[in-house]
Amino acid sequence: MKKKILKQKSAKNTSGAPTKFSRKDILAKHISYCHKTQKNSVTTAVRTQVEQTPVPQLTEIFNCDICEFKTSQKRYILAHLNAHIAEQMFCCNNCDYRSIKKDNLQKHMKIHTGEKPFSCHICKYQCIRKSNLQSHMTIHTGEKPFSCHICEYKFITKGNLQTHMKIHTGEKPFSCHICKYQCIQKISLQSHMKIHTGEKPFSCNVCEYKFITKSGLQRHMKIHTGEKPFSCNICEYKCITKSDLQRHMKIHTGEKLFSCNICEYKCITKDNLQTHMKIHTGEKPFSCHICKYQCIRKSSLQSHMKIHTGDKPFSCNICEYKCIIKSALQRHMKTHT
Prior knowledge:
The protein is of the alpha+beta class. Helix content is 45%, strand content 12%.
Protein backbone atom coordinates (compact mmCIF):
# COMPACT_ATOMS: atom_id res chain seq x y z
CA MET A 1 0.00 0.00 0.00
CA LYS A 2 2.82 2.44 0.94
CA LYS A 3 4.62 1.81 -2.38
CA LYS A 4 1.37 2.38 -4.22
CA ILE A 5 0.85 5.70 -2.38
CA LEU A 6 4.36 6.92 -3.24
CA LYS A 7 3.89 5.83 -6.80
CA GLN A 8 0.60 7.69 -6.91
CA LYS A 9 2.27 10.84 -5.44
CA SER A 10 4.78 10.95 -8.29
CA ALA A 11 2.11 10.47 -10.94
CA LYS A 12 2.50 12.57 -14.08
CA ASN A 13 -0.05 15.03 -15.44
CA THR A 14 -1.46 14.96 -18.95
CA SER A 15 1.46 17.02 -20.30
CA GLY A 16 3.99 14.44 -19.10
CA ALA A 17 5.72 16.77 -16.58
CA PRO A 18 5.71 15.93 -12.84
CA THR A 19 3.02 17.78 -10.87
CA LYS A 20 4.39 19.96 -8.02
CA PHE A 21 2.51 21.65 -5.21
CA SER A 22 3.42 24.42 -2.82
CA ARG A 23 0.46 24.09 -0.45
CA LYS A 24 -1.38 21.19 1.16
CA ASP A 25 -4.82 22.43 0.19
CA ILE A 26 -3.91 22.59 -3.52
CA LEU A 27 -2.59 19.01 -3.37
CA ALA A 28 -5.72 17.85 -1.59
CA LYS A 29 -7.90 19.42 -4.30
CA HIS A 30 -5.75 17.78 -6.96
CA ILE A 31 -6.27 14.38 -5.38
CA SER A 32 -10.00 14.96 -5.01
CA TYR A 33 -10.59 15.92 -8.67
CA CYS A 34 -7.90 13.95 -10.57
CA HIS A 35 -8.01 10.62 -8.74
CA LYS A 36 -11.75 10.07 -8.24
CA THR A 37 -11.52 6.75 -10.08
CA GLN A 38 -9.13 5.35 -7.48
CA LYS A 39 -10.27 3.56 -4.40
CA ASN A 40 -11.43 5.56 -1.41
CA SER A 41 -8.87 3.87 0.82
CA VAL A 42 -6.00 5.12 -1.36
CA THR A 43 -7.41 8.66 -1.48
CA THR A 44 -7.88 8.72 2.28
CA ALA A 45 -4.36 7.43 2.84
CA VAL A 46 -2.89 10.08 0.53
CA ARG A 47 -4.86 12.84 2.26
CA THR A 48 -3.59 11.60 5.63
CA GLN A 49 -0.02 11.67 4.38
CA VAL A 50 -0.52 15.21 2.98
CA GLU A 51 -1.79 16.43 6.34
CA GLN A 52 1.21 14.93 8.13
CA THR A 53 3.80 16.23 5.64
CA PRO A 54 5.31 19.61 6.73
CA VAL A 55 5.02 22.44 4.16
CA PRO A 56 8.47 23.69 3.11
CA GLN A 57 9.18 27.38 3.80
CA LEU A 58 9.56 29.10 0.42
CA THR A 59 10.95 32.38 1.82
CA GLU A 60 12.96 34.35 -0.75
CA ILE A 61 16.34 35.63 0.40
CA PHE A 62 17.63 38.95 -0.95
CA ASN A 63 21.43 39.29 -1.14
CA CYS A 64 23.42 42.50 -1.48
CA ASP A 65 25.86 42.40 -4.43
CA ILE A 66 28.21 44.85 -2.70
CA CYS A 67 28.51 43.41 0.80
CA GLU A 68 27.40 40.25 2.69
CA PHE A 69 24.06 41.69 3.82
CA LYS A 70 21.07 39.30 3.54
CA THR A 71 17.39 39.75 4.32
CA SER A 72 14.03 38.16 3.63
CA GLN A 73 12.31 41.56 3.35
CA LYS A 74 12.39 43.39 0.02
CA ARG A 75 11.99 46.80 1.66
CA TYR A 76 15.05 46.18 3.83
CA ILE A 77 17.27 45.31 0.87
CA LEU A 78 16.07 48.46 -0.96
CA ALA A 79 16.86 50.63 2.06
CA HIS A 80 20.25 48.92 2.37
CA LEU A 81 21.08 49.53 -1.31
CA ASN A 82 20.12 53.19 -0.93
CA ALA A 83 22.75 53.43 1.80
CA HIS A 84 25.39 52.22 -0.69
CA ILE A 85 24.11 54.74 -3.23
CA ALA A 86 24.44 57.55 -0.66
CA GLU A 87 28.07 56.55 -0.12
CA GLN A 88 28.76 56.88 -3.84
CA MET A 89 26.88 60.19 -4.29
CA PHE A 90 28.47 63.36 -5.63
CA CYS A 91 28.05 66.11 -3.01
CA CYS A 92 28.11 69.89 -3.34
CA ASN A 93 30.69 71.64 -1.15
CA ASN A 94 28.50 74.76 -0.83
CA CYS A 95 25.10 73.31 0.12
CA ASP A 96 23.39 69.99 0.95
CA TYR A 97 22.77 69.01 -2.69
CA ARG A 98 23.68 65.41 -3.60
CA SER A 99 23.34 63.43 -6.79
CA ILE A 100 24.14 59.97 -8.12
CA LYS A 101 25.34 61.46 -11.42
CA LYS A 102 28.38 63.67 -11.75
CA ASP A 103 26.73 65.57 -14.62
CA ASN A 104 23.88 66.68 -12.34
CA LEU A 105 26.36 68.01 -9.79
CA GLN A 106 28.20 69.96 -12.50
CA LYS A 107 24.92 71.56 -13.60
CA HIS A 108 24.07 72.34 -9.98
CA MET A 109 27.43 74.07 -9.40
CA LYS A 110 26.45 76.68 -12.00
CA ILE A 111 23.90 77.98 -9.48
CA HIS A 112 26.77 78.91 -7.14
CA THR A 113 29.09 80.20 -9.89
CA GLY A 114 26.29 82.21 -11.56
CA GLU A 115 27.10 80.66 -14.94
CA LYS A 116 24.17 80.66 -17.38
CA PRO A 117 25.35 79.26 -20.71
CA PHE A 118 21.94 79.24 -22.42
CA SER A 119 20.40 82.56 -23.46
CA CYS A 120 17.29 83.66 -25.37
CA HIS A 121 17.90 85.41 -28.73
CA ILE A 122 14.71 87.45 -28.34
CA CYS A 123 14.99 88.77 -24.76
CA LYS A 124 17.68 88.88 -22.07
CA TYR A 125 16.64 85.62 -20.41
CA GLN A 126 19.52 83.34 -19.41
CA CYS A 127 19.48 79.94 -17.74
CA ILE A 128 21.55 76.96 -16.65
CA ARG A 129 19.76 74.15 -18.52
CA LYS A 130 18.81 73.79 -22.16
CA SER A 131 15.41 72.40 -21.15
CA ASN A 132 14.69 75.64 -19.25
CA LEU A 133 15.46 77.66 -22.37
CA GLN A 134 13.15 75.46 -24.46
CA SER A 135 10.33 76.05 -21.96
CA HIS A 136 11.07 79.80 -21.99
CA MET A 137 10.86 80.02 -25.79
CA THR A 138 7.22 78.96 -25.66
CA ILE A 139 6.51 82.30 -23.93
CA HIS A 140 7.49 84.07 -27.16
CA THR A 141 5.68 81.61 -29.43
CA GLY A 142 2.58 81.61 -27.21
CA GLU A 143 2.55 77.83 -27.23
CA LYS A 144 0.87 76.20 -24.23
CA PRO A 145 0.55 72.47 -24.99
CA PHE A 146 -0.69 71.40 -21.56
CA SER A 147 -4.29 72.29 -20.65
CA CYS A 148 -6.52 71.65 -17.65
CA HIS A 149 -9.57 69.46 -18.39
CA ILE A 150 -11.57 71.16 -15.62
CA CYS A 151 -11.02 74.84 -16.34
CA GLU A 152 -9.60 76.77 -19.30
CA TYR A 153 -6.08 77.21 -17.95
CA LYS A 154 -3.21 76.25 -20.24
CA PHE A 155 0.44 75.80 -19.36
CA ILE A 156 3.86 75.70 -20.95
CA THR A 157 5.15 72.75 -18.92
CA LYS A 158 3.61 69.51 -17.64
CA GLY A 159 4.95 70.29 -14.15
CA ASN A 160 2.96 73.55 -14.02
CA LEU A 161 -0.19 71.67 -15.02
CA GLN A 162 0.35 69.06 -12.29
CA THR A 163 0.80 71.84 -9.73
CA HIS A 164 -2.36 73.57 -10.98
CA MET A 165 -4.43 70.37 -10.67
CA LYS A 166 -3.84 70.42 -6.91
CA ILE A 167 -6.00 73.57 -6.79
CA HIS A 168 -8.97 71.51 -8.00
CA THR A 169 -8.22 68.52 -5.76
CA GLY A 170 -7.56 70.75 -2.73
CA GLU A 171 -4.29 68.93 -2.09
CA LYS A 172 -1.77 70.93 -0.05
CA PRO A 173 1.10 68.57 0.75
CA PHE A 174 3.38 71.17 2.33
CA SER A 175 2.56 72.62 5.77
CA CYS A 176 4.27 74.97 8.23
CA HIS A 177 5.27 73.46 11.58
CA ILE A 178 4.85 76.83 13.32
CA CYS A 179 1.44 77.99 12.08
CA LYS A 180 -1.45 76.45 10.14
CA TYR A 181 -0.19 77.58 6.73
CA GLN A 182 -0.47 74.96 3.98
CA CYS A 183 0.49 75.21 0.33
CA ILE A 184 0.83 73.34 -2.94
CA GLN A 185 4.49 74.00 -3.72
CA LYS A 186 7.64 73.47 -1.65
CA ILE A 187 9.02 76.82 -2.81
CA SER A 188 5.93 78.56 -1.40
CA LEU A 189 6.58 76.97 2.00
CA GLN A 190 10.24 78.05 1.87
CA SER A 191 9.14 81.64 1.19
CA HIS A 192 6.55 81.44 3.97
CA MET A 193 9.12 80.28 6.54
CA LYS A 194 11.00 83.56 6.00
CA ILE A 195 8.01 85.33 7.57
CA HIS A 196 8.76 83.53 10.84
CA THR A 197 12.53 84.05 10.59
CA GLY A 198 12.16 87.67 9.48
CA GLU A 199 14.58 87.03 6.62
CA LYS A 200 14.27 89.42 3.64
CA PRO A 201 17.24 88.70 1.39
CA PHE A 202 16.12 90.84 -1.57
CA SER A 203 16.43 94.62 -1.14
CA CYS A 204 15.69 97.58 -3.42
CA ASN A 205 18.73 99.66 -4.45
CA VAL A 206 16.56 102.77 -4.84
CA CYS A 207 14.63 102.81 -1.57
CA GLU A 208 14.78 100.86 1.70
CA TYR A 209 12.21 98.22 0.79
CA LYS A 210 13.18 94.59 1.39
CA PHE A 211 11.44 91.47 0.18
CA ILE A 212 11.21 87.77 0.93
CA THR A 213 11.14 86.72 -2.73
CA LYS A 214 12.98 87.87 -5.86
CA SER A 215 9.66 88.18 -7.71
CA GLY A 216 8.44 90.60 -5.03
CA LEU A 217 11.48 92.80 -5.64
CA GLN A 218 11.00 92.63 -9.42
CA ARG A 219 7.38 93.82 -9.07
CA HIS A 220 8.48 96.60 -6.73
CA MET A 221 11.17 97.87 -9.15
CA LYS A 222 8.45 98.60 -11.71
CA ILE A 223 7.17 101.29 -9.34
CA HIS A 224 10.48 103.14 -9.75
CA THR A 225 10.70 102.57 -13.50
CA GLY A 226 7.03 103.43 -14.03
CA GLU A 227 6.56 100.27 -16.07
CA LYS A 228 2.97 99.03 -16.26
CA PRO A 229 2.87 96.19 -18.80
CA PHE A 230 -0.73 95.13 -18.14
CA SER A 231 -3.59 97.36 -19.35
CA CYS A 232 -7.38 97.14 -19.38
CA ASN A 233 -9.05 96.92 -22.81
CA ILE A 234 -12.17 98.67 -21.52
CA CYS A 235 -10.76 101.66 -19.62
CA GLU A 236 -7.36 103.33 -19.26
CA TYR A 237 -6.32 101.34 -16.21
CA LYS A 238 -2.74 100.05 -16.25
CA CYS A 239 -0.94 97.99 -13.65
CA ILE A 240 2.26 96.19 -12.80
CA THR A 241 1.03 92.61 -12.33
CA LYS A 242 -1.35 90.33 -14.19
CA SER A 243 -3.19 89.50 -10.95
CA ASP A 244 -3.94 93.22 -10.43
CA LEU A 245 -5.46 93.37 -13.92
CA GLN A 246 -7.58 90.27 -13.27
CA ARG A 247 -8.94 91.88 -10.08
CA HIS A 248 -9.62 95.10 -11.95
CA MET A 249 -11.58 93.33 -14.71
CA LYS A 250 -14.06 92.15 -12.10
CA ILE A 251 -15.05 95.81 -11.62
CA HIS A 252 -16.34 95.83 -15.22
CA THR A 253 -18.00 92.44 -14.99
CA GLY A 254 -19.51 93.22 -11.57
CA GLU A 255 -18.29 89.86 -10.29
CA LYS A 256 -18.01 89.72 -6.48
CA LEU A 257 -17.34 86.17 -5.39
CA PHE A 258 -16.65 86.87 -1.72
CA SER A 259 -19.44 87.94 0.65
CA CYS A 260 -19.66 88.65 4.38
CA ASN A 261 -21.82 86.27 6.44
CA ILE A 262 -22.71 89.04 8.92
CA CYS A 263 -23.67 91.95 6.67
CA GLU A 264 -24.39 92.40 2.96
CA TYR A 265 -20.84 93.37 2.03
CA LYS A 266 -19.45 91.73 -1.11
CA CYS A 267 -16.05 92.11 -2.66
CA ILE A 268 -13.79 90.98 -5.46
CA THR A 269 -10.93 89.41 -3.52
CA LYS A 270 -10.55 87.17 -0.47
CA ASP A 271 -8.05 89.64 1.04
CA ASN A 272 -10.64 92.41 0.97
CA LEU A 273 -13.14 90.17 2.77
CA GLN A 274 -10.59 89.27 5.47
CA THR A 275 -9.88 92.97 5.98
CA HIS A 276 -13.60 93.71 6.16
CA MET A 277 -14.19 91.04 8.81
CA LYS A 278 -11.91 92.98 11.17
CA ILE A 279 -14.62 95.67 11.28
CA HIS A 280 -16.96 93.15 12.93
CA THR A 281 -14.31 91.72 15.25
CA GLY A 282 -12.99 95.17 16.18
CA GLU A 283 -9.44 94.04 15.43
CA LYS A 284 -6.99 96.86 14.61
CA PRO A 285 -3.56 95.30 14.22
CA PHE A 286 -1.74 98.44 13.03
CA SER A 287 -1.02 101.25 15.50
CA CYS A 288 0.92 104.52 15.42
CA HIS A 289 3.98 104.73 17.71
CA ILE A 290 3.55 108.51 18.07
CA CYS A 291 -0.14 108.84 18.89
CA LYS A 292 -2.96 106.45 19.80
CA TYR A 293 -4.16 105.97 16.23
CA GLN A 294 -5.04 102.36 15.30
CA CYS A 295 -6.33 100.93 12.04
CA ILE A 296 -7.19 97.80 10.11
CA ARG A 297 -4.98 98.31 7.05
CA LYS A 298 -1.23 98.85 6.82
CA SER A 299 -1.81 101.35 3.99
CA SER A 300 -4.02 103.40 6.31
CA LEU A 301 -1.20 103.56 8.88
CA GLN A 302 1.28 104.61 6.20
CA SER A 303 -1.06 107.43 5.15
CA HIS A 304 -1.53 108.45 8.80
CA MET A 305 2.22 108.67 9.42
CA LYS A 306 2.43 111.41 6.79
CA ILE A 307 0.44 113.61 9.17
CA HIS A 308 3.34 113.46 11.60
CA THR A 309 6.04 113.84 8.94
CA GLY A 310 4.16 116.58 7.05
CA ASP A 311 4.66 114.72 3.77
CA LYS A 312 2.04 115.60 1.11
CA PRO A 313 3.08 113.83 -2.09
CA PHE A 314 -0.10 114.56 -4.08
CA SER A 315 -0.55 118.08 -5.45
CA CYS A 316 -3.06 119.81 -7.71
CA ASN A 317 -1.74 121.04 -11.09
CA ILE A 318 -4.27 123.87 -11.15
CA CYS A 319 -3.96 125.35 -7.66
CA GLU A 320 -1.57 124.99 -4.76
CA TYR A 321 -3.58 122.26 -3.01
CA LYS A 322 -1.54 119.35 -1.60
CA CYS A 323 -2.67 116.25 0.23
CA ILE A 324 -1.54 113.01 1.79
CA ILE A 325 -3.58 110.47 -0.18
CA LYS A 326 -4.44 110.14 -3.86
CA SER A 327 -8.19 109.78 -3.25
CA ALA A 328 -8.23 113.17 -1.51
CA LEU A 329 -6.67 114.76 -4.60
CA GLN A 330 -9.24 113.07 -6.83
CA ARG A 331 -12.05 114.53 -4.71
CA HIS A 332 -10.36 117.94 -4.85
CA MET A 333 -10.09 117.89 -8.67
CA LYS A 334 -13.88 117.67 -8.87
CA THR A 335 -14.06 121.19 -7.42
CA HIS A 336 -12.32 122.49 -10.53
CA THR A 337 -14.53 120.52 -12.93
